[in-house]
Write a structure and sequence with these properties.
Elements (H helix, E strand, L loop, with lengths): L1 E10 L3 H19 L2 E8 L7 E10 L2 H23 L3 E9 L2
Antiparallel strand pairs: 1-3, 1-4, 2-3
């Protein structure tokens, strides 16, 4: 099983607005793209002052699926987040495999 994780570092001034976007736009869009079983998590570890960290995880059918999605779609999602929230919402993604 492959898990596609996106970590968000969100400034406290936009946390509510950004989480609403993740829940109402980002997650449904990713489901439409073919990912399944979304999980939204708050990360409880050190963070930069004024920022809180969250992760959104999805199960993906294969590494090739993730690779194709990243090549075709990831830039659109990254640009949308940057356009909506600027430098107050930073993201990075990682791919994990359940052992």
């Amino acid at each position: 099983m492959f898990i596609f994780n996106t970590t968000f570092s969100i400034h406290e001034s936009i946390t509510e607005k950004c989480l609403k976007y993740i829940q109402t736009q980002h997650i449904p869009n990713m489901l439409d793209d073919g990912f399944i079983n979304p999980l939204l998590l708050k990360i409880h570890s050190e963070s930069t002052d004024g920022y809180h960290n969250y992760a959104v995880q999805f199960i993906a059918p294969s590494l090739q699926f993730i690779s194709n999605w990243k090549e075709e779609m990831e830039r659109d999602y990254t640009n949308e987040i940057r356009l909506l929230f600027g430098e107050k919402a930073l993201t990075f993604s990682s791919i994990m495999e359940k052992i």
